What does this fold into?
Amino acid sequence: MQPNDLVKAIIHEQEQIIGVLLARKIAESSGAVQFKSENIDSVELKKEPKEIIEGLIRVYSGVFGKASEQVCIDVIEKYYTAESINLIPESVKSRIHLK
It folds into this structure.
């Protein structure tokens, strides 16, 4: 899984819950991503993948609490591959449960 894919998956899942505009506004508030258009594929990564994922978890949970944080963790678990382990921040690794 490429860093863009995991980031897009996290944002997309948040969009399903809180709406596209709010999910993207919150994601951009992390300073880690920016959207060039309305298409989610236009997301531009502004930092290292680990920093982006950690930042997304932080901003979503800061606004919506543990439930929003868990949505991010669920996405990471769902799309986890051996290659994606390098994308996952240390602070998150202990909270994921791999099946």
Observations:
- The chain has one domain: 3-93.
- Residues 3-93 form one domain.
- The two ends are 17 Å apart (CA to CA).
